[in-house]
Design a protein that fits this description.
mainly alpha, 0% strand
Length: 409
């Protein structure tokens, strides 16, 4: 495909739906089902079980995302470069659901999360590589906006299913599995891979190829986007890891409404998404250049820092909801431009899967250290779960500073 050729509407729609389905498969699992499973295994040690499982899952995510990206760059088969990794990723996620749902020990829970991260990151690496392969700079704003809605929409849909409509574990896991299969597999089998013709020579390995893999870190904007995304992911993970427990222990939701904390989390994600949807689409459609995406990223990070502080100070449920509405505003602004910002920062070379794997380390590695940071804050400051929310706000503020250092043109 020529670099300046716009992708078809069918491709863009299929990629957007597949990306959304992947995040619906992920967001409620790590944000709700795994915490609930940890509590069911050992309520007294739930924070430690959860942090341990998420730590090893994140280490696995970091390795598997880079490996899947590099290997998909070099894959040549009748199925194409990216397709085998997407199909294998779906299979891995489905297997992980079965392990997590039946886990009765911390080790089994950790094994399930590790397996999930292998499958999810194989799928994610291939989807993002397709975005870079097939989308020229002029078309990135629109598709980045659509893809940017995926994480908050995945949170909302997953929370509605898991925390609202469905109460049995079997139905919860079954619904997420069905959404993943229906959302991803039709795209996997129907899309055309222009860059993956049968018989095409693989990418040649060069001397010092390990060094070459890390070549993008010689580019200033790549480093800044990497560090900024790392700070933002730290903020999201630290803020979300104990959010379910925060609702139960530090707000008056249960006393006020007599409902379980899962229902409160579902309500918060719905409120947040209602703000995210309009904001992310408008700003994503408007942002065509790195300069514009830079300004939106700074604004989104700053608003998220403000929302973290507001949430940390709230206890009465209406104020918690208001803080989450502000959180949705910041999330919408940031996620509308995140994917485009990442692709803009890639160096001009034909190793996009591997390069995106490197930049995705900024999303994977914080999932390892962020739960440990949250656990440390919980232990060091005996003030409920509020110190964790202040830590989240600080990480978002750091993201705003780093994005602000990007070049203006």
């Amino acid at each position: 495909m020529r670099d300046d050729a716009a992708p078809s509407s069918a491709f863009m729609a299929g990629l957007g739906v597949a990306y959304l389905a992947a995040f619906i498969a992920m967001a409620p699992l790590l944000g709700m089902l795994v915490p609930l499973r940890a509590e069911a295994i050992d309520a007294a040690a739930k924070e430690t079980l959860l942090s341990t499982a998420l730590f090893w899952g994140a280490i696995t995510a970091a390795v598997s995302n880079v490996a899947a990206g590099v290997l998909s760059d070099r894959t040549r088969s009748r199925l194409g470069r990216r397709r085998p990794w997407m199909a294998g990723g779906v299979a891995g996620v489905l297997a992980a659901y079965a392990v997590i749902a039946t886990a009765t020990t911390g080790a089994a829970l950790t094994a399930g999360v590790v397996l999930f991260q292998i499958g999810f990151n194989a799928l994610l690496a291939a989807l993002l590589a397709l975005f870079a392969d097939r989308t020229p700079a002029a078309a990135r704003g629109r598709l980045s906006a659509a893809m940017g809605v995926s994480y908050p929409l995945g949170n909302m849909v997953g929370a509605a299913l898991v925390g609202g409509w469905l109460t049995q574990d079997g139905a919860r896991y079954g619904a997420l599995a069905a959404i993943l299969v229906v959302g991803v597999l039709p795209f996997v089998f129907r899309m055309r891979e222009d860059g993956a013709r049968d018989g095409e020579a693989p990418v040649e390995a060069t001397p010092g190829s390990v060094t070459a893999w890390f070549g993008p870190f010689a580019h200033r904007d790549f480093v800044l986007v990497w560090l900024g995304r790392s700070a933002m992911t730290t903020g999201f993970v630290v803020g979300n890891v104990y959010l379910l427990y925060f609702i139960a222990a530090d707000t008056n939701f249960q006393a006020r409404y007599g409902a379980p904390p899962e229902a409160g989390l579902a309500l918060l994600t719905g409120v947040s998404f209602g703000v995210v949807l309009g904001v992310s689409l408008v700003l994503g459609l408007a942002g065509g250049r790195l300069r514009r995406r830079r300004g939106a990223a700074v604004t989104g990070a700053a608003v998220l820092a403000m929302s973290g502080g507001l949430l940390a100070m709230a206890s009465d449920w209406p104020w918690v909801v208001a803080a989450f509405a502000v959180h949705g505003l910041g999330t919408g602004i940031y996620y509308a431009v995140e994917t485009g910002l990442m692709v803009d920062a890639l160096p001009p070379r034909d190793q996009r899967g591997g390069d995106l794997g490197l930049i995705n380390l900024a999303a994977a590695l914080p999932q390892a250290w962020a739960p440990l940071m949250a656990l440390a804050a919980l232990d060091l400051v005996q003030a409920g779960y509020r110190p964790v929310l202040w830590l989240s706000a600080a990480a978002f503020a750091m993201g705003a500073v780093l994005f602000g250092a990007l070049k203006r043109n």
